């Protein structure tokens, strides 16, 4: 009887102890795994393997009590773990992993790639998530304002970090910062500690085997109590994207109200062979199997199967093409090709950015060809409609003074255009005072004639009239030989010759917009001529459109300044001082006067591009009457604040009689 009572008491004590909320644990197998996560007998926890677009979750199987009541403060906690990330390609990460505090050990609907298996596109940012995460991210996602592709961040209910820094640690002796590369494949140890009294969260990372630094990488004073419930689960979440990565947890300790016990590095499991070695073994096995099958007489069957798969894949690819893609046919690049070419769209490959998106430098690995990739984000001003216009127009244009479109790529809501790389950048940078590049007069005159030739092709030589609508030095690029090439056709429109070449949306850059375009909103070849005239004046003068006269006077428009000098007989005083009088005066005067004529306030007085090319080549001479006409027109516009009719000038000489500007561009169905 006594023995029976002892047994019953022992069982009750075991049951009571099993229901006790734990406050400390070590990596001991009491885990819940889902997705791609695996655990081996040696204690190695594999979150993701070489598979792309996957998600893995690992949580301690029991909830932890973080506070005693809903309104109570959070208890202090500490955790440390050793991790390693081995990407499929050494320099390109496959997204990262995160330490997670979650109200549940199940995260249904979580997406891979940039969402790290924590959220999806509908619940990210919701206050009801109650998710705290410390992310170790190896891909820069502009959607979440990531600082780079190698950072540590603290996230609350979203992946836009409250605080983030490039992964690394500070030397205790010198204070020097040493960057750590998360995707190097080397094991690293991280400490995450929260002081409930001070409401301070610290994150420290360092190489395995080295002393833990005193100064943390991240330190954030923040009250977590509104975001953490009484009982929460702790664990890890990770994801892969287009590029795969193997992610491992080699050891993990956690403690409430105290410091987690340090890990014994010598007892941790080893990282398995690299993903590349696994692929090599797999490929060798496939070769052996292929030889065996061929010897066994199955070659014919294999060819039939492969042929069927190829045809099926080709049909499937054709089905996803839009009608315009089949019709216009520039080469379509794969996203993976562009991702590898630009080194994952790294910041140090960025050439520039603007309203259209960002432009990156890249090198195609298959041909070693240098390219420029325009990446158009989903919230850019240049969306799908403009993208289709650019593909359909510039994809078929061929001229030595136009930037050549090599191809394009569409991926979800992102758009990519691939151009020839222009090593000398934009003309605007060469004209600026901050540039080390100084253009002499012969180079400037050649560039002006290059752009005129390209614009003449767009207006009058191609099968359709193309209206560029944004001609300026920033959109003129220079190749190795300093040849000018007109680019950025994001605002281009086109129509049949003889039809009304007008568009209905105002676009372009302030200062280059013709008066009638600002008034009516309709662009045509004449409004391009206005912008080209301003462009020529800028190239000669080396000045911006608006420059301050002095610190005490108002700003002065470039055209007004040139007109004043011309009226005084000192038009050559407007030439860029960097030329130091080393120029051909007749050529300079020609370009200045032609620039003023092209930017005439009255559209009918502007010449056609064919006439402009003839003037620049010396085939035709500017009429002597243009000075009085231009000065009188500007004076009339200043007095009435409206563009005037060009007096004393024969408009037949400057207008294109084959074009009529009466019907809307849309009326022709284009």
UniProtKB/TrEMBL annotation:
MF terms (GO), sorted A to Z: ATP binding; carbohydrate binding; protein serine/threonine kinase activity
Reaction(s) this enzyme catalyzes, per UniProt: L-seryl-[protein] + ATP = O-phospho-L-seryl-[protein] + ADP + H(+); L-threonyl-[protein] + ATP = O-phospho-L-threonyl-[protein] + ADP + H(+)
Broad class of the protein's primary localization: membrane
GO cellular component: plasma membrane
Residues that bind ATP: 374
Location in or out of the cell: Cell membrane
Membrane-topology descriptor: Single-pass type I membrane protein
Transmembrane stretches, start-end: 287-311
Pfam annotation, one family: Lectin_legB
Keyword Signal: yes
This enzyme's EC code(s): 2.7.11.1
Keyword field contains Nucleotide-binding: yes
Protein kinase domain: residues covered: 345-616
GO biological process terms on file: defense response to bacterium; defense response to oomycetes
Keywords carried by this UniProt record: ATP-binding, Cell membrane, Glycoprotein, Kinase, Lectin, Membrane, Nucleotide-binding, Plant defense, Receptor, Serine/threonine-protein kinase, Signal, Transferase, Transmembrane, Transmembrane helix
Signal peptide feature range: 1-18
PANTHER family: PTHR27007
Family: In the C-terminal section; belongs to the protein kinase superfamily. Ser/Thr protein kinase family. In the N-terminal section; belongs to the leguminous lectin family.
Protein name as it appears in the record: non-specific serine/threonine protein kinase
């Amino acid at each position: 009887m006594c023995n029976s009572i002892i047994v019953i008491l022992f069982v009750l004590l075991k049951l009571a102890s099993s229901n006790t909320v734990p406050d400390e644990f070590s990596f001991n197998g009491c885990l819940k795994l889902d997705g791609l996560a695996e655990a081996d007998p040696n204690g190695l926890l594999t979150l993701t393997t070489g598979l792309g677009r996957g998600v893995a979750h690992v949580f301690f199987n029991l909830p932890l009590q973080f506070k005693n009541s809903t309104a109570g403060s959070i208890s202090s906690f500490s955790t440390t773990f050793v991790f390693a990330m081995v990407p499929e390609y050494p320099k390109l990460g496959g997204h990262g992993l995160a330490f997670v505090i979650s109200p549940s050990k199940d995260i249904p609907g979580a997406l891979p790639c940039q969402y790290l298996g924590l959220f999806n596109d509908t619940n990210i940012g919701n206050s009801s998530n109650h998710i705290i995460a410390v992310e170790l991210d190896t891909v820069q996602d502009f959607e979440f304002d990531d600082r780079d592709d190698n950072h540590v961040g603290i996230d609350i209910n979203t992946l836009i970090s409250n605080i983030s820094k490039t992964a690394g640690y500070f030397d205790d002796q010198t204070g020097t910062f040493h960057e750590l590369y998360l995707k190097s494949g080397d094991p690293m140890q991280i400490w995450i500690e929260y002081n409930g009294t001070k409401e301070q969260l610290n994150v420290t990372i360092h190489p395995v085997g080295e002393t833990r630094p005193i100064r943390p990488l991240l330190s954030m004073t923040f009250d977590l109590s509104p975001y953490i419930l009484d009982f929460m689960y702790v664990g890890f979440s990770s994801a892969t994207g287009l590029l795969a990565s193997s992610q491992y947890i080699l050891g993990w300790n956690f403690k409430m109200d105290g410091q987690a016990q340090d890990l014994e590095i010598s007892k941790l499991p080893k990282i398995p062979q690299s993903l590349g070695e696994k692929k090599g073994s797999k490929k060798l096995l496939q070769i052996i199997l292929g030889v065996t099958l061929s010897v066994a007489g199955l070659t014919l069957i294999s060819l039939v199967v492969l042929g069927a798969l190829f045809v099926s894949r080709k049909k499937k690819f054709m089905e996803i093409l839009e009608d315009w893609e089949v019709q216009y046919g520039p080469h379509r690049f794969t996203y993976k090709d562009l991702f590898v070419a630009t080194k994952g769209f790294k910041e140090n490959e960025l050439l520039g950015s603007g309203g259209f998106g960002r432009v990156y430098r890249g090198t195609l690995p298959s041909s070693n060809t240098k390219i420029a990739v325009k990446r158009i984000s989903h919230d850019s001003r240049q969306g799908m409609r403009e993208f289709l216009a650019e593909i359909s127009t510039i994809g078929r244009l061929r001229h030595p003074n136009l930037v050549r479109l090599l191809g394009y790529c569409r991926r979800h809501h992102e758009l990519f255009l691939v151009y020839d790389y222009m090593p000398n950048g934009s003309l605007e940078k060469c004209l600026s005072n901050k540039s080390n590049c100084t253009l002499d007069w012969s180079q400037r005159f050649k560039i002006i004639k290059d752009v005129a030739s390209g614009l003449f092709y767009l207006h009058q030589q191609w099968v359709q009239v193309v209206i560029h609508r944004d001609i300026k030095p920033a959109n003129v690029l220079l190749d190795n030989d300093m040849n000018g090439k007109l680019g950025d056709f994001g605002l281009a429109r086109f129509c049949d010759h003889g039809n009304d070449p007008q568009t209905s949306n105002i676009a372009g850059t302030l200062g280059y917009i013709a008066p009638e375009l600002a008034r009516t909103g309709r662009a045509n070849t004449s409004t391009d001529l206005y912008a080209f005239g301003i462009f020529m004046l800028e190239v000669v003068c080396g000045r911006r459109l608006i420059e301050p006269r002095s610190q005490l006077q108002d700003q002065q428009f470039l055209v007004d300044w040139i007109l004043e000098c011309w009226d005084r007989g000192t038009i050559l005083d407007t030439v860029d001082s960097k030329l130091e009088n080393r120029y051909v005066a007749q050529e300079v005067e020609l370009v200045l006067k032609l620039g003023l004529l092209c930017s005439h306030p009255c559209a009918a007085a502007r010449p056609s591009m064919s006439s402009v090319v003839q003037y620049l080549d010396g085939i035709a001479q500017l009429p002597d009457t243009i000075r009085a006409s231009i000065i009188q027109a500007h004076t009339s516009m200043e007095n009435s604040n409206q563009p005037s009719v060009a007096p004393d000038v024969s408009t037949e000489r400057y207008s294109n009689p084959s074009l009529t500007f009466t019907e809307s561009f849309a009326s022709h169905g284009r």
